[in-house]
Amino acid sequence: MPPHPRPHTALVVLAIILIGINLRPAFSSVSPLLADIRLSLGLSSSTAGLLTTLPVALLGLFAPVASWLAKRYGAEKLLVPLLLLLAAGLAIRGIWNTASLFLGTSMAGISIGLLGILLPSVIKREFPQHPDLMTGVYTMALCLGTALAAGLAVPLLHTVGSLPLALALWSLPALVTAWLWWPLRRLGDYPVRSTQQANSTSLLHDATAWQVTLFMATQSALAYCVFGWLPTILQDRGITAADSGLLLSGSVMMQVISALLVPWLCSLMRNQKIMNQLMFIVIYIGLMGAIYAPIEQSWLWMVLLGLGQGGGFAMALTMIVLRTRTPAQAAQLSAMSQGLGYILASLGPLLMGFMHEASGHWHNAGWLITAIVLAGLYHGNRAGAQRFVLEN
Questions:
Q1: What's the CATH class of domain 9-189+201-383?
Q2: What are the coiled-coil residue ranges (predicted)?
Q3: pTM
């Protein structure tokens, strides 16, 4: 028996929310400043594309490491070291040269990838009765962190007057969260609330696991195209850097609404097919409008884009907890869907950068977006069927 009483549920919820807030500023704090970063360091479009692609690829490459570490040490014990690694990576970006920028971004990407893979299993374990709703809360926190970083990136730069410092200061919230999580590091020592046994069979031969993975990959590809390139696209269309950051921030704030609402609505449905597909349709309308419609309508399209992306990401995470029966299966599916999914998703912003460098404009971006959305509609329908992994 543990020597101390189990922490109050509200404290666990708060700690998960705080971790969620820290999982996207490494990305969204860069995109409104990407033009300034390229100018300062002399980066080409393809190199800048690698800056947005590298952390996404690392999210996937380190997924197997997350599973091994969780089995050896326990997910809860790993969160503080990973938050410290995240803070160090963000701080290193303040050493202003190309190598340190990529090194710090890589460290942040590894940490975020491991944290994002471990948390669904913690949620499944601690909230077995309502994993979908708690996943919505976690996704809401993640969207809130994204919005804050996107909206504050340019004002923070103007306030501190230094591009390296403006990027490095995002290490402070990660340090605070590590300090707050420290009392909860032994949460995994308490008896597991679920009595179901784990099934250690590999998911790589399971069709349902692959559908969840490809659903995660397609919605993530669109998300990182937005985080990596949409502010630059808007700036090339005549919108200021500050306004492009505000547009992205406002769009992500809409994600907070749908991240909470969509999983709740799905809890009332027989399956998640329609909702998964609806989110892709809303994303497509919003993204195409933001790229091609008159810039005077930008707020309308960004609101739609945000509602679709918040709901889409929440559904991708919800599929992990709804398609599994045990926390161990949730950890397996989380590692597979986010690991392979993010590796595939990293091709989205990379291809968009290459297409821009080859053509000198963004007109062809719509073809790439359309292809990703069509794939997402198919896999979202298959992943939304009411069934579980490792069941014939």
A1: mainly alpha
A2: none
A3: 0.74
